[in-house]
Each structure stands twice: as structure tokens, then as C-alpha cells.
Amino acid sequence: MEASYAYHDSLDPTNLGNFKNRLNVPGRDGLFGLFDASAGPAELVARKEGVQLASGKDTNLLVYRVEREGRVWLNPTFLVKTGYAFSASLTNELDEDTTIHWHGLHLHWRMDGHPLRAVRPGAGYRYAFPVANRGGTYWYHTHGHGSTARQVYMGLAGLFIVEDDDERRVNGALGVELGETDLPLVIQDKNFDAKGNLVYDPDEMARSMGYTGNVILVNTTPTPCLEVGTRLYRLRLLNGSNARLYRLAFAKIGDGELLPYRVIAADGSLLDRPRQVREVFLSPGERADLLLDLTGFEVGEELALQNLSFDPMHREHEMGESMGHGGHASHGGMGHAEEMDADTPRLGDGQEFYVLKMVVKNRVAQDGSVPDVLSTVPSADVCGAGVRTVTLSAATEAGQTRWLINGLSYEPDEYPIVVQKGATEVWEIRNDERSMPHPMHLHGFRCRVLERRNSPRQVGGTAVDEQGRTATDLGWKDTVLVWPGETVRIAIQFSHDLDGEQIYLFHCHILEHEDAGMMINYKVVDPRE
Ligand code: C2O
Ligand code: CU
Ligand code: CU
């Protein structure tokens, strides 16, 4: 019996009293440290590393380590500018294949970390590409064939922050500074054993539903706390979890009411203007940049970023064959039941808990203000665009659920979707009723969400327009959550000036789904070649 979970009561995120660990704020170096990529190529080494997270014990992580001028970064937060020539080399010191995928970035497919371009143990690879994207919060992670879920869970992921003129202007107007009042928050859930090491041992159920953890980490700090001043904060959220979906809200502690906040960016770009909300769903792979206004707070007041309860909509067994695991909402609570002590709590999908506690520490001047206009986000031109239907469904065989895209499971040398260079396409992504929410991610190109149809009430209730879109649907996207029974229409413009035929992936960003084949290759071909 390998899985003896020591669920530390002190890390239980449902107990606000536990939120005493000082949040790791990305600084000059260290874990997620800010790394100026314009100062020359980064020499990354993928390797095992013991790192103290909060427990005083070393946790076994897999990291991208880079050293420069005597300083060491682990999973550096790359800072780049649009148009800049980015370059990083990877040396693989793991005992298995790995790659780096630059999530959300438009680049030549050979630089995209496709599993077909795996880097063998002991080998290296040089990634080099001009940064073509708009300013925004992107990220990078390993994409090994069949090993993405475990390798990302063990740590191989970091942020990639792109700056452009709009970003400079907006942060100038807000008066926020990266690493001080503009804070990256990488949210992940993990399980630890008694020694403080990470446990990744998905059973059959977790392999089909996604592996979730009992402990919520922000920038690798479990049950974190952050001291803040009475001002505006920009929070760059990344859901870097393997499978967990969050419904994020802020509340003053001791006060039931949710605080309003603004969404200013989603995945790869600023919105046209700030949108006020009280909650957003954030699925694995997605980013949302939020503005939190604490100018009205008093010193000593406390607030929390929390996960609201929601219906996780695991509807895959609702009709037909039942696996007898007690209904749709309970797999989070049942998945590991046999392996765990009966009294070990499990953090179920859609359960309420806290993510980050904030304590208002000092009264400060707020110089900046929220601009009315953030950037220009032209609406998608879909005139003459072809429509492609993409279906998401489940097939259950011998008690094992497999997730399919257009009825297919991943085949490394098949290209079920071929698009013409320069074409605009509308992809109509339909998720089966008997399914679960799937965050669908497109490599290589960004997309616009055109419409959500037949959304569940917990999503439709937060729609901001007639098309059923939510605030986080309004910018340029690369990862789009599609709920059971829902149809989401996205527009993609496949223009590029890269050389030759391009091969990218389209997959579910629940990493266990991706590894189990909920992924397809697509090809962009040049009709003139
Ligand atoms: Cu962030 Cu192919 O994924
Ligand atoms: Cu990606
Ligand atoms: Cu999925």
C-alpha cells in the first residue's frame, strides 16, 4: 500500500485558521522568481529538487532550474516583451522524456514542445522564437507523451508574462508594479505524504475524472496569507491544477457578502474594458487577471479569496450503465476511498474552501485609478468562415471511462483536423449531456469565444451579453471551458508567417484526460505548397 495520505489538519483549506503561511510572492530569484529574459538566453535544467514549501520539510519537486550570476531560479517567471526574440535551452536531467510547451504562444510548431519533439534523458533542446503575442499572462509546462499530468503535478510549470504598450499603459494608470502590487497567483491542488513529499497516485477513477488534491497551494505556498495595503491590486491568476475547477470570489472575513472585483484580462490579453463581477470560474490552463480595490478597507480588516461551492456536473454516468460509485457529485469524495483512512477528509470537486487570506496591514496612498479603456479587442470577423463541429463525449468500457474528441482518441501520427493557412474557422464545440466539464485548449493560435448555448445555470447566470458569454470569455483565449450539454462556438484565424506545414494539438486541459488521449493533432497546411 503506497498511498498513505497524511492529511495534515494544519493544511486543511476549509479552515481559515490554517492560513498562516506567508505567500511566496515571486521576487528576484527562487521559486517562480522574476526572470528578465531580455538579458540573454535562459539555460534551463529539468531536474529533481528538494524544496521547502512551508512545512519545514523538503518536498520532492521536478523543476526547471536556471542559474545566472550566482542566483538560482526554479520555474522562473519569464518577463518578455512583444516582438522580443526569446530563447531558452532545456537540458533534461530527469530519467524520462520531457519537453517545454509554451502555453498560449503563437510559434513554430517545432518550438511548441509537442510530444513528438520529446527531449530524451541527458539530451537538450533549444527553444527560440520571436514573441508574437499581445501582452498578457501566459505560461509554460512540460508536455511529455503520456506523462504530462504527473510531470506538471510534480512541478514542471511556470509563468511567461508578456508586456506590450497596452500593458505598460494600463499598469501605469493603475499604479501597480509586478511583484509588489501586480501579483501572479498560481493556484494548484496537491496531496502530501507524512514526510512532506508530493503524492501522485491516481487510481482508475482519478485517471478518468482527473486527479485532485486536498491541499491548495498558491505559488507553491499551502494555506497562504498575504499582507496588503489599502490600494488597488492586480492579481494574475493561473489555474495550474491538473483537474480542479475553481469558482473564485472574494469576501471580507466575518461578512457573508461577496466583494465586487473587476476582470481586466483573460488568457492571452487585456479585455477592451474592465468588467465588474463577483465570481469567475477558472478551469485548468486558464488565466484571469483581476483588479481588487482595497481602498475602502480599514487597517486590520481581513479578506479571503475563496472557492464557492458549485455543481461539478459529473454527468457521465447519469444515464445507462452506472459504475455504482454513488452518483455524479461524489467522485471527489470517493475516488481514493479504499486507499485512505476512513476519517481522512477529501476535498471534493465543487466543495467550498479558502484559497488565500489577505490581511490589510497598512494605509497607503493610491495614486493610480482604473482606466475606462484597456485595449482594443476587435470582434471576430467570421464572415465566410467555415464551421467545424467538435464533439466531446465519453465511452465507458469495463468500468473505465475514456474521453473522446469527435469520437477519437489520440494517435501520434494522425491529423484528424486539417485547416488551411490563412483561413478563419468557427469551431462549434459540443459537450455531451452525459459528460463532465472539459477545458479545451488550442495550441499555436488564439481564439475568440462567439457564443455559449445551453449553459448550466451556474454559468448562464453570470453571462454578460446576449451570446451567453461570461466576463472571462471576452478577450483572446486559448483555453475554453465547455460544460456538459453546453455548446461553445469559438472563432480561430489561422494566419501565420511561419515556415512550412504546422502541427499543433487541441486537447482537454484536465491533464489526466489529455494523457489518456483526449487530444488530437491538427495541421495547418498552405494550399500553395
Ligand atoms: Cu497547457 Cu497542450 O497545454
Ligand atoms: Cu498549450
Ligand atoms: Cu476533459
Please give the alpha-carbon distance between the first and last residues. 57 Å
The molecules bound to the chains, other than polymers, are: CU-O-CU linkage, copper (II) ion
Low-confidence stretches: 320-343
Number of helices: 6
Number of strands: 35
**Mean pLDDT over the residues:** 92
Shape: globular
- Main sheet? 7 strands, mixed
Given helix and strand content, the structural type is mainly beta
Tell me the Rg in angstroms: 22 Å
User: How large a portion of the residues is in β-strands, by DSSP E?
Assistant: 35-45%
Tell me roughly what share of residues is in helical segments.
under 10%
How would you summarize what this structure contains?
With 529 residues, the protein is mainly beta. The chain is built from 6 helices and 35 strands.
Secondary-structure topology with pairs:
Layout: E1 21-22, E2 30-31, E3 34-36, E4 42-52, E5 58-68, E6 71-74, E7 77-81, E8 85-92, E9 101-103, E10 124-130, E11 136-141, H1 148-153, E12 157-163, H2 165-174, E13 182-190, H3 204-209, E14 215-218, E15 221-222, E16 224-229, E17 232-239, E18 246-252, E19 258-259, E20 261-266, E21 270-277, E22 280-282, E23 287-293, E24 302-307, H4 331-334, E25 353-362, E26 386-397, E27 400-405, E28 417-420, E29 424-431, E30 438-442, E31 447-453, H5 457-460, E32 479-482, E33 487-493, E34 502-508, H6 511-515, E35 519-525
Parallel strand pairs: 1-16, 2-6, 3-7, 4-8, 7-12, 13-17, 16-25, 26-29, 28-35
Antiparallel strand pairs: 4-5, 5-6, 8-10, 9-11, 11-12, 13-14, 14-15, 17-23, 18-19, 18-22, 18-24, 20-21, 20-23, 24-25, 26-27, 29-33, 30-32, 30-34, 31-33, 34-35
Bound molecules: CU-O-CU linkage and copper (II) ion (2 copies).
